[in-house]
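User: Predict the structure for this protein chain, please.
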Amino acid sequence: MATAQVLLSGLFSVVAGIVILIFPKIINYLIAFWLIAIGVIAIVFSA
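Assistant: Here is the predicted structure, written as structure tokens:
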């Protein structure tokens, strides 16, 4: 089972790398969305 997880992880990494190379602007939006989401979650759960 560990071999399947390593294979899926590797495939995901390769696909993500190709997507970033083809659409580099998307990674900026994804990072921005992730940071905003983490910030909102931190504010909501700390209050």
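The two ends are 41 Å apart (CA to CA).
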